[in-house]
Specification:
heterodimer; A: 438 residues; alpha+beta; two-stranded antiparallel sheet; 15% strand; disordered N terminus; B: 164 residues; mainly alpha; two-stranded antiparallel ribbon; 9 helices; 2 strands; 55% helix
């Protein structure tokens, strides 16, 4: 059975993108909070190469256009995968719950930066999981010939600010991945090793996208182990080796367990044409946490317990020592500090309605864009951050403890990543990944 | 007369910074609004003249409409036949843009320095927005947008900071 999205997916990318700006009759649908004539956005498996901008330009109009770009990217990256990096256009997003998505076939950092600076396996090939995980291959999902060995070996947020513990007392797990463009640059320039970085004479400069070609993309995902009181049908889930990495903290013993995890947070960094500071999109599960100053109207949050009298203080990490192997850790009591703005909420409602219309009951209606950070003055000669808008942006699952509006302290994607270097001290082009080289 | 555009034009003449540096088209800080409000309120309170700010803006607008250059406008505003209160209000606006703070001038005629000035920061954002950092080709203490190792390199040209 074909529907409008599948028909669109057969069109050339440029035409498809232009279609996003037109009224798609078949996608018109009145939704709660929307005018009856508001068209729903087109849902497409094509990763946008660039954002589409609409005059007259203003901070607000450009924010909207970048937010649309974020949603288009999120949807295409989360489309079920047919093969490594390729969407399965025979199905729609949401039609294969638990299926590996396009981005899940990308290259994980643990498959790039190897002990002793060894050469990483080529694109499409992964390392086996840590030996403690055993040699059990993950079940083959979907029509992918080989599902990557999904290993979640990180449990710490940036700058040692602390782990994030869910309502079941379990550590949230993280992973960082790159697309083929970014990985190939690392591989070709030998930036996967310290010696390669030392020999690299210039600063890193990952490929930009073009009008029609997708450029470098890096992703960071946060997952929670699904357990008591969680509703798996509300999450994008996957089977993953949840690995307690002894390299993370002193006292952590290597352990591994194959578990079902649910996606709770998702960063997308894209090097768009004309934006050397990259474009930063961040999404969350809608049940993660309430927002300070707004109604606390859900019975269950992933990272907040309503009416709690003995919980930890809001947005404070658990006391050290940190050990993801502990059977239970006091849950983190999380609240969002910076509320979503009204246009973003409206855009979220629009995309969620389109996803629901496409596949009723789709898990993807349970995800929302927090915002998109972009440089307002990308070519500035005096400010390498390009005056980002919004000035601050945090994902409650990925920058839990550095939310806020204090410059140089609170989470700002561009400002933070502007300080990233390789192990050689040279600028690493807005990624801390290259610091992992051995 | 559009008050804000006139204020930005006046500020550009007085500070020597280009208008699009003081008020970029995509203005993420919108510090100009804070400054216009602060300048208006403080000058009115200090002088008791509720019309002084408008008088200054009007004079700038007329000179600008007459095709005068920035230098000529600056000369006329600061060295013309304007009152000491008029000139001091312009000087305080320069201070505000450069320091992000409102000045309190304590004149002590006859002393070696002629007095001293104290000031109060308007906000953390006004501190980091101060033009003094730009004209120094540097950054506010504790707030650098430059990358690791920048201290070993030549800063951008002064004209890149001022826009002139």
């Amino acid at each position: 059975m074909k529907n409008s999205t599948l028909l669109f997916s057969a069109l050339p990318a440029a035409l498809l993108l232009s279609a996003c700006n037109t009224t798609a009759t078949e996608n018109k649908q009145a939704t709660a909070g929307q005018a009856a004539t508001t068209p729903l956005p087109v849902i497409s498996p094509v990763i946008p190469a660039d954002a589409q901008f609409h005059e007259p330009f203003s901070l607000e109009s450009l924010q909207h256009d970048f937010d649309v770009f974020s949603w288009e990217s999120f949807i295409a990256l989360n489309w079920p995968a047919a093969s490594v990096g390729v969407a399965d256009t025979s199905v729609n997003i949401g039609q294969k719950p638990g299926a590996a998505t396009v981005w899940q076939t990308y290259k994980e950092s643990r498959d790039i930066f190897l002990p002793n600076g060894a050469t990483p396996p080529p694109w499409g090939k992964d390392l086996p999981p840590p030996s403690v995980c055993g040699d059990q291959d993950l079940p083959v999902l979907n029509q992918i010939a080989k599902v990557p060995n999904n290993v979640l070996d990180e449990s710490a947020e940036p700058f040692q600010t602390g782990p994030l513990v869910d309502q079941n007392g379990q550590y949230t797990r993280f992973e960082i991945l790159t697309n083929d463009v970014m990985f190939n640059y690392i591989a070709e320039k030998n930036l996967y090793s310290k010696s390669g970085q030392e020999a690299f004479a210039t600063e890193a400069d990952f490929p930009f996208g073009t009008d029609s070609q997708v450029g470098s993309i890096m992703l960071k995902a946060s997952w929670k182990v699904l357990g008591k009181n969680d509703a798996p049908e509300k999450f994008h889930t996957t089977k993953a080796y949840v690995y307690d990495n002894p390299d993370e903290h002193a006292g952590v013993k290597a352990a591994c367990k194959l578990q079902t995890v649910g996606l709770v947070g998702f960063h997308i960094g894209t090097k768009l044409k004309g934006n050397p500071q990259w474009i930063w999109s961040t999404f969350e599960h809608v049940d993660n946490a309430p927002t300070q100053g707004e109604a606390i109207n859900k019975k269950h949050y992933n990272y907040y317990k309503p009416d709690c009298t003995d919980c930890a203080a809001v947005n404070t990490p658990p006391p050290r020592p940190w050990n993801p192997g502990n059977a239970y850790t006091q849950p983190t009591q999380v609240m969002r500090v910076i509320p979503l703005d009204k246009p973003t909420k409206e855009l979220n409602a629009s995309y969620q309605a389109a996803l629901e219309k496409l596949v009723p009951g789709s898990v993807w209606v349970n995800y929302e864009l927090i915002s998109t950070q972009w440089p307002t003055n990308a070519d500035s000669k005096t400010d390498p951050t390009g005056a980002p808008a919004p000035a601050f942006l945090a994902n409650t699952t990925l920058e839990t403890y550095i939310q806020g509006t204090v410059r140089q302290t609170s989470s700002s994607c561009i400002q933070c990543h502007n300080n990233a270097t390789m192990t050689s001290g040279k600028f690493s082009d807005f990624t801390y990944l290259l610091q992992r080289a051995q | 007369m559009d008050i804000m555009s006139t204020f930005v034009g006046l500020s550009s003449v007085l500070t020597g910074f280009a208008q699009d540096i003081l008020a970029p088209r995509l203005d993420t800080t919108n510090i100009k609004t804070l400054y216009l409000q602060s300048w208006t309120e403080n000058i009115t309170q200090e002088t008791g003249d509720a019309g002084l700010v408008n008088t200054i803006l009007q004079q700038y607008a007329e000179l600008q409409a007459a095709g005068k250059s920035d230098e000529e406008i600056g000369e006329q505003l600061m060295n013309g036949n304007n009152s000491p209160a008029f000139v001091l209000a312009c000087q305080k606006l320069i201070f505000l843009w450069y320091m992000g703070a409102w000045p309190d001038v304590n004149a002590q005629p006859g002393t070696e320095t002629g007095g001293f000035t104290t000031s109060s920061l308007l906000s953390a954002e006004s501190y980091t927005s101060g033009l003094v950092w730009q004209v120094m080709q540097a950054h506010p203490m504790g707030d650098s947008n430059y990358r690791y190792g920048y201290w070993a390199e030549q800063p951008p040209a002064l004209s890149d900071f001022t826009g002139n």
